[in-house]
Amino acid sequence: MITRRLFLRLTVGLAATRARPVLSRAGTKARVVVIGGGFGGATCAKYLRRADPSLDVTLVTPQRLFISCPFSNAVVAGLQPLTSITHTYDTLRRRYGIRVLYNTATDLDPLKHRVTLNDGKKLSYDRLVLAPGIELQWGAIEGYTPAESAVFPHAWEAGSQTELLRRQLKAMKDDGLVVITVPDNPYRCPPGPYERASLIADYLLKNKPRAKVLILDAKDTFTKKDLFVSAWKRLYPTTLEWISGSQGGRVTRVDARTGTVYTDFDEYKPAVANVIPPQRAASIARVAALDDGKGWCPIRASTFESTVHRDVHIIGDAAIVNPIPKSAFGANIEAKACAAAITSLLHAEPVAPPVLINTCYSLVAPNYGISITGGYRVVDDTIHTIPGTDGISPLDAPDAVRAQEAQYARSWYANITADTFT
Ligand SMILES: Cc1cc2nc3c(=O)[nH]c(=O)nc-3n(C[C@H](O)[C@H](O)[C@H](O)COP(=O)(O)OP(=O)(O)OC[C@H]3O[C@@H](n4cnc5c(N)ncnc54)[C@H](O)[C@@H]3O)c2cc1C
Known about the structure:
about 425 residues; alpha/beta; five-stranded parallel beta sheet; four-stranded parallel beta sheet; 25 strands; binds flavin-adenine dinucleotide
């Protein structure tokens, strides 16, 4: 349980504003540059300006429109349009005075405190926030490169890939096989592949009842497994099948030319293959060895400052924040804690260790929701689950509870996107 006191401690800390402006090394307003306008970066930029309107905050992100991965599985399954998960930065700019640059950061000099953009422009900062999300590891599955993703979509970054997978499902034969390949941990959104398989199974059952979904998994277990498996037995007994890593589910190679997916023991020729490859922190979070050469970025959890370079903070999927999963909920809450820490640091005030929360909702069917939740505190720069705060939906809940959780999931999406982008 998140107690009222814990919640207030977090939210009160965030609401604090400063009367005196803080100056940068250059004697101008203190400059914070935020790279990446997703759940982590957009939230952090907003909460920095809320905490201290004197800060000069620049948000660098490639696209004018942000299309969210949360609820993209519902788009894949045809339950809602892509426009329903598309957001702009207009309110962040207008209401909070954030300078938004539609550009890509290509390099970083942590010693000179400078970021280089794609057009050669350089931005100086007092504090830098990196929230660039993930990069797909092309080639980690033999034969899977950007060219193959046009045939076997990953749809693990939302947008055109989401639409491609949707189109393929609509176009496939009535008795077709859909294969979804799932990598080992860690990856963005641990329950995401299983939610996707569920919603695709729901779509097939209603529209192509002779078709089937097969999950080829590199792992033997996954988050909320008992809840997913018991729901699948009931809702999709002949439509959905899961093959674990030890049963031969690990995908080693794909051949888009022949339409084949290979595991250690078998080969499949699906009508649709959704290949979700292994991932790592996006490239800008791996320059200057910010990932220690290991793919994900270590941070000091009290401030989210990199353990490799000073004055560089890393939040969201790119950072190592175990036991918090790589989720939009997590990126949003880390962003607020990071904004509070940066404001304190710039004002030479002590940083209050953050209290963090996360809930991952999954839809197993349009009116069937399940969730897992946790509360976390930071001790000695390490994140710990607060005993008694971890919770999961009951295994034997009645349909009314599942329907209510599906409603909570939709309401969560409305709230988190409002908190992030408006
Ligand atoms: C299918 C699916 C379903 C999901 N469902 C849920 C859910 O229900 N609940 C949940 O909590 N989470 C969910 N997630 C996870 C969630 O999408 C991520 O955890 C979240 O987006 C992470 O936020 P982030 O800010 O780290 O990265 P992102 O939100 O991906 O934002 C990163 C941004 O940085 C930009 N960027 C990258 N490199 C650069 C650069 N060099 N310069 C400038 N900008 C750059 C990117 O273009 C992007 O706009 C889901 C994920 C998937 C794939």
